[in-house]
Write a structure and sequence with these properties.
The chain has four helices and no strands. The protein is mainly alpha-helical. The chain has a domain at 2-76. The radius of gyration is 31 Å and the shape is elongated. The model has no long low-confidence stretch (mean pLDDT 74).
């Protein structure tokens, strides 16, 4: 179900981008008032402003709703994933390295000194 909501979310995001790019800016109204071809639009002589703005508002509300739903699903899965980056303590235990919980007194922390060879 989460994947389906995510696919709907992406489709709404793409539709929002397209609708926002289709809309005219506020400065375009002055040119349209003096016969800028407003009668030749697909949406009639009144223009596409109300249709596109209503559709954008509906899609924005749907985008908000899907965002909240996906955030809710993400908060409910509080368990660590089974695959991915393992815990550092698990790696140290598998390698036989001492963990922070072990006492560090019995571990030799000195690094071997490498001698420089003369050439």
């Amino acid at each position: 179900m989460q994947v389906a909501i995510l696919m709907i979310h992406v489709a709404i995001a793409i539709a929002l981008v397209v609708l926002i790019l289709l809309q005219q800016g506020k400065g375009a109204e002055a040119g349209a008032a003096f016969g800028g071809g407003a009668s030749q639009t697909v949406f009639g002589s009144r223009g596409s402003g109300s249709f596109l703005s209503r559709t954008t508002a509906v899609l924005a509300a749907a985008f908000f709703a899907t965002s909240l739903t996906l955030a809710y699903f993400a908060s409910q899965t509080g368990d660590a994933p089974e695959v991915g980056i393992p815990d550092s303590r698990l790696i140290e235990q598998q390698r036989g390295l001492p963990t922070l919980d072990d006492e560090a007194d019995d571990v030799d922390n000195t690094a071997p000194v490498l001698e420089e060879s003369e050439e």
